[in-house]
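Entry under discussion copied across for reference:
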Amino acid sequence: MSIPPPIVERRPRRTRIHGVDLVDDYAWLRAENWREALRDPSALDPAIRAALEAENAYSGATLAPLDPLVADLAAEMRGRIREDESSPPAPDGAYAYYTRFRKGGQYPLICRMPRGGGAETLLLDGDALARGAAFFQLGPLAASPDHARIAWSSDDKGAEYFTIRVRDAATGRDAEDRVERAEGDIVWSAAGEAFYYVALDDNHRPSRVFRHRLGEPQSADQCVFEERDPRWFVSLHRTRSRRFAVIALHDHDSAEAHLVELADPRAVPRLVAARRPGLRYDVEHHGERLIIRTDADGAIDFKLVEASLAAPDRWRDLVPHRPGCFIVAHETFRDFLVRLERANATPRLVVTEFASGAEHDIAFDEEAYALGFERMREYDSQTLRFSYSSLTRPREIWDYDMRTRARVLLKRQEIPSGHDPDRYVARRIHAVAADGARVPISLFHRRDLPPDGSAPALLYGYGAYGSSIPAAFSANRLSLVDRGFVYAIAHVRGGSDLGWGWYLDGKLEKKTNTFGDFIAAARALTETGYAAPGRIVAQGGSAGGMLMGAVANSAPELFAGIIADVPFVDVVNTMLDGELPLTPPEWREWGDPRRDEAAFRRMLAYSPYDNVRAQIYPPILALAGLCDPRVTYWEPAKWVARLRATMTGGGPALLHVNMAAGHGGASGRFDRLGEVALQYAFALACARGDFAAEA
């Protein structure tokens, strides 16, 4: 049963910025009490709730004919999951820790066993903890140095306010300790009588580090560090050596780190190197020195340097900068240094022995694949644990002896319903952008699919914050590819797939390169015969949702449909709103429109919400989470309302709001499959032209 689309009331709000009058008809959808509503969704203004529920009713009715397909897709995806999945145990002292699921269970079970084998101890039962909750997420957790206690965190709204508790590992009982409104990171003191954590302020920003002594109330916690500049994020982690907690700060341009000696309960954070514009670095510890990844001295793709603990700001090159070879991350062990680097969008691991300086690499032969570090808990170890997958090959977890170079396959992702990698092909092609830049595109399709220009395609893009989109395996994508789709990833500027310069060429005044790259990728798919003209569905989420909104405005004719997941589309208004959690830190990524007129005019020219125009749009499915602190629900709600009121044809413009989740959508692993299935059913319908036929 179809119903008419909602007509969202217009309540114009006028703002004058840099001589420009901005009129926002739908500003009222932003709840004045948004902070309270994040913690308690029932506090949302009834008129706003009614508007969101009307959107859900319309999208539900419009997509109802797809319900059987959604159910089939979700069942397929579930059939590819081993329901009693478990991770390889990770050794840590006398124990080995791992995660597993029970059959039919939605949430993880956190377990351990004696290192040499033996009876399992169930430390945290995610299914039991989530019982009765509309949303539940286990956050970071950490075992005390003697392994007697587990400090664990959880979020029951999706708003990313974590509560930290302390559990006795032997009895399974939680102590009275309770830390509210934490960011989630936990680092124990060396003696295990206290732990450090990051607290969120009233604007949901991680700004202070506290030390909590066991048995004391949160009100007695000692603040050991506070960042007063709202443009900086604060995070916390422990060095592999376990000697220090690292208080790491960053914005989207610079970084700073402070060390806290974990054996000293009175330790004051010690600065490594003072922040300055354009200086990024991150720190690991090795003996009496620090090993630091940095872009100092023009090392645009980063280098590794070393510094003594006595003079941590005096750096000497250890692994010099090599343009075009981006050092992504590094790990230190007692005898070895390992770095993950990427060149031409292809990763490899490089192992260096400290004593001899000899190095060797770990790489694979496929055109496009993903490689990364797995969780390793010990410092005095010669075992490197890493993961590998490709678009065609399921994820593998390997233990690698850095001394003997022997590899042991610990686990290969099992697909219970069956999967033959040889039935599929992964390829890498390139698009040429308007300025001549070569944009990599990773492709995944059935081997028997001819590149004759007849296939539909889903083209995914992100392009922000220097995040790369790895050419990794996803079992869910098989539901599209097995139905004749080409799955494509556009490695657009704004990401770091081709190095840090690739990121810098897609931010601030160069942001529109991201959009142009994606459009070039769509055209390249048709020009090379990998996709049929008019049958490409575009998909992106969060900052990639901005990309979706931008290409919908500038090149709607290229796309059969657009899926925008929690899309950041109201760029100007959000960047003008300094009270929002992420706005001040984001000024380094997009610009500060209030203080910088050039930045204002630049983002006004591409902001998806501000550039909706009277034209034909493809079908658009926007998804949002009511409790999302990153991309607030009102951004996609306002965007869809303006689209519907302005477009001259095409569509429909649909909004689905998860009223019990945040940025990541549904929390249960099977519930999440339902959301993915809805998106893929929409993509299939768009490629078939179902919505055009209805219009």
The chain is about 20% helix and 35% strand. The longest strand covers residues 174-188. The chain has a mean pLDDT of 96. Residues 158 and 662 are 4 Å apart (CA to CA).
